[in-house]
């Protein structure tokens, strides 16, 4: 990659800066409404999640403006984690019931990013691993842990065997 590929146009810089500013402004307005009592929720429950969500939104939007694929992936990852943390604080079920969202957040980021990058093989591998792990986390929240672990081990073993057969076909 040459040095000119990292240069951003003035329009990209302006749009990127506006995206960050608007995201942080929305976060500030929301926190102000919470502090004034307009939105009835404890400020300590939404302070960190709203800031992380705003950071993710700022990263996603400015990365789209910059056509930065890694930034888009990281932005969706942070945005997913922020939204999950937000709901984890507000829902009465607790984090154990939504752990699968945290575990599968890289898969969520890859699912959205694949449409921009068109790098299907890498993103599909990430999706398979982390959606699989998220499924195990989801099942473990509602079913017996030993049953879920044995099921997860069987699925992992089948995935490894399937991967070995696919790899064998690649080298023929």
Features:
172 residues; 7 helices; single chain; flat; mainly alpha
Describe the structure.
It contains 7 helices and no strands. With 172 residues, it is mainly alpha-helical. The chain folds into 2 domains: 12-90, no CATH class; 94-172. Helix 2 runs antiparallel to helix 3 (69-90).
Give a quick rundown of the structure.
This protein is mostly helical and 172 residues long. Helices cover 81% and strands 0% of the residues.
Structural class: mainly alpha
Rounded mean pLDDT is 79
Order of helices and strands: HHHHHHH
The number of E-state strands comes to 0
Number of domains: 2
Give the radius of gyration: 20 Å
Write the layout of secondary structure elements.
Layout: H1 10-36, H2 43-66, H3 69-90, H4 99-103, H5 105-117, H6 120-142, H7 145-170
């Amino acid at each position: 990659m040459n040095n000119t590929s990292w240069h951003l146009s003035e329009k990209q810089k302006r749009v990127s800066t506006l995206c960050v500013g608007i995201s942080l402004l929305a976060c500030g307005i929301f926190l102000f409404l919470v502090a004034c009592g307009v939105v009835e929720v404890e400020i300590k429950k939404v302070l960190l999640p709203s800031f992380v969500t705003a950071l993710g939104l700022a990263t996603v939007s400015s990365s789209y403006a910059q056509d930065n694929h890694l930034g888009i992936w990281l932005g969706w990852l942070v945005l997913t984690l922020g939204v999950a943390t937000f709901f984890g604080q507000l829902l009465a079920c607790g984090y154990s019931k939504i752990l699968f969202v945290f575990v599968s957040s890289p898969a969520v980021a890859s699912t959205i990013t694949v449409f921009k990058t068109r790098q299907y093989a890498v993103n599909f591998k990430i999706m398979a691993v982390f959606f699989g792990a998220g499924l195990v986390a989801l099942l473990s929240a509602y079913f017996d842990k030993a049953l879920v672990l044995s099921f997860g081990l069987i699925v992992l073993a089948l995935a490894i065997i399937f991967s070995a057969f696919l790899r064998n076909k690649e080298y023929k």
